[in-house]
Write a structure and sequence with these properties.
- This protein is mostly beta strands and about 375 residues long.
- The chain is built from 3 helices and 18 strands.
- The chain has helices at about 5-30, 50-60, 85-95; strands spanning about 100-110, 115-120, 125-135, 150-160, 165-175, 175-185, 190-200, 200-210, 260, 265, 270-280, 285-295, 295-300, 315-320, 320-330, 335-345, 350-355, 365-374.
- An 8-stranded antiparallel beta barrel has the order 1-2-3-4-5-6-7-8. Strands 11-12-13-14-15-16-17-18 form an 8-stranded antiparallel β-barrel. Strands 9-10 form a two-stranded antiparallel ribbon.
- A hairpin with a 6-residue loop joins strand 17 (about 350-355) and strand 18.
- Helix 1 (about 5-30) packs across helix 2 and helix 2 (about 50-60) packs antiparallel against helix 3.
- Mean pLDDT is about 80; it is low at about 5-15, about 30-35, about 145, about 230-240 and about 245-255.
Length: about 375
C-alpha cells in the first residue's frame, strides 16, 4: 500500500473541513423561506437537493470543480455559481424543490360521490396522477352501479409550470373527458387550488403536499392470559397455617451491548481532546471536551473554556443513531447555537460547533472539531 505524505493528507483534511464549514455557514445563513424556482442544486434531477450536492456546489463556487458537474446550480445562466445561488440551493435542500413531489386533494361531487386526486410531479415538470371516485351507494357518475366504495379510477397526465406552480392534467374514462388543474402549494404543508372537470361538471377544492395517507395508529399488543393452574384440595388440619404467597420475580431487561441510557454508545462518555479548526478564519486551537450523562440527559462540557460560547450544553440523541449527539438552541446575545458530534468508525469524535446571530445580516462563527479520547 502506498502511503500519502502526511502534509498532503493534512491539506486534504483541511480542504474537506473548509467545505464542511462553508456548507454549515450556508445552512445557518439561509433565510427561512420557500424553495427557489427550477430547483437549483438538484444535480440528480430527482426533485431534491442533498448535502452531497451542496458540497459539490460549494466546490464549483470555489473553482475546484467544473460547472459541468452540476449546471443546475447556475440558475442565472452566467456560467458561474454565486453565493445567492448557493443559498437558493440550501433553501431547496431545507424546504424541498418547488412544485415537485407528491400532492393530494379531494372534491365533493353530486349524488354523494367524492373524488380523491393524487399527483406526482417530476423535476422536469412532467406530472402523472389518479382521480379515484367513490360512491356512497347511489347511482354513480359513470353509471357503473350502486355499490358503495371505489367505483372509478381515472389516470391523468400533464405538466406543471415549475416557476408558477400552475398545472393541468388530462385523461378520459368511458369516453368522458377529465381535466385536473389548479395551482400547487410552494412549500411543505401549504395549500393550493384544485379544479376537477368531468365532462361539463366542475368541482373545486384545495390541494396540499403529501400523498394523503393517514397517520398509522399504534396497534395495541395483546397480552396472553396465563392459564390458571389446577388447585388440589388441601387436607383439613386442626391448626392450619396460612400458605406462603410465592414471590414472582420479573427478569431484568438485558441492556443492548455498548449502548447506555439515554441511548448513546458507552465509548462516547469520557474526556476527548484535539483541535478546533476553521481554516478560512485561521482558527486552530486546542480543544478538550467532556461527554457525560446526568440523570437521563447527555451533556458536553468545554473543559478549556475556549470553544463554547455558553456553558454546559444538553445534547439530544436519536435512538436510531446512538453514535450521534446534537443540539440546537438559542443562547444569550440573540444567537443560535448548534453543535453535532459523531463517533467515527476510527473511534474518534468529529463534528462542528457554530453560533449564528439572529439579526440580519446573520454572522456565523464555526469550528470543526477533531477529537481523540484521552
Amino acid at each position: 500500500m502506498v502511503r500519502r505524505p502526511r502534509m498532503e493528507v493534512n491539506l486534504e483534511v483541511h480542504r474537506v473541513m473548509k467545505v464542511r464549514i462553508l456548507v454549515m455557514m450556508l445552512l445557518a445563513a439561509a433565510p427561512f423561506g420557500t424553495a427557489s424556482a427550477n430547483c437549483g442544486g438538484d444535480c440528480g434531477d430527482d426533485g431534491e437537493v442533498t448535502v452531497d450536492e451542496l458540497v459539490l456546489g460549494v466546490n464549483i463556487a470555489l473553482g475546484t470543480t467544473p460547472l459541468s458537474q452540476c449546471a443546475s446550480f447556475d440558475t442565472s445562466n452566467d456560467n458561474e455559481v454565486t453565493v445567492d445561488e448557493l443559498v437558493g440551493a440550501v433553501n431547496n435542500a431545507l424546504n424541498g424543490c418547488p412544485y415537485t413531489g407528491q400532492f393530494y386533494g379531494s372534491v365533493t361531487m353530486d349524488a354523494g360521490q367524492s373524488g380523491k386526486v393524487n399527483l406526482a410531479v417530476q423535476a422536469d415538470g412532467s406530472a402523472t396522477g389518479t382521480l379515484k371516485i367513490s360512491d356512497g351507494g347511489s347511482a354513480t357518475f359513470f353509471g357503473d352501479g350502486g355499490s358503495a366504495g371505489l367505483i372509478a379510477t381515472v389516470l391523468v397526465s400533464g405538466t406543471v409550470d415549475l416557476d408558477a406552480g400552475t398545472f393541468s392534467l388530462t385523461g378520459t374514462y368511458n369516453d368522458v373527458a377529465v381535466t385536473i388543474s389548479g395551482t400547487l402549494p410552494s412549500s411543505l404543508g401549504g395549500t393550493g387550488s384544485l379544479t376537477v372537470q368531468i365532462g361539463s361538471a366542475v368541482y373545486s377544492s384545495t390541494i396540499t403536499t403529501g400523498d394523503g395517507s393517514p397517520t398509522p395508529t399504534p396497534t395495541a399488543t395483546r397480552t396472553a392470559t396465563a392459564t390458571p393452574t389446577p388447585t388440589l384440595p388441601l387436607p383439613t388440619a386442626t391448626n392450619t397455617q396460612p400458605l406462603p404467597t410465592p414471590t414472582r420475580t420479573t427478569p431484568a431487561a438485558t441492556p443492548t451491548p455498548n449502548i447506555v441510557p439515554p441511548g448513546i454508545y458507552a465509548y462516547m462518555i469520557g474526556t476527548w481532546s484535539g483541535r478546533a479548526i476553521n481554516e478560512p478564519t485561521h482558527v486552530n486551537k486546542a480543544a478538550r471536551i467532556k461527554v457525560e450523562v446526568r440523570g437521563n440527559q447527555v451533556y458536553i462540557v468545554d473543559l478549556n473554556h475556549n470553544v463554547f460560547a455558553s456553558g454546559d450544553i444538553p445534547m439530544s440523541v436519536t435512538p436510531a443513531a446512538p453514535q450521534v449527539i446534537y443540539s440546537n438552541r438559542t443562547i444569550p446575545g440573540n444567537k443560535l447555537e448548534s453543535v453535532q458530534l459523531t463517533l467515527t468508525p476510527a473511534n474518534t469524535l468529529a463534528g462542528i460547533y457554530s453560533t449564528t446571530t439572529m439579526a440580519y445580516p446573520p454572522t456565523l462563527d464555526a469550528v470543526a472539531l477533531e477529537l481523540s479520547k484521552e
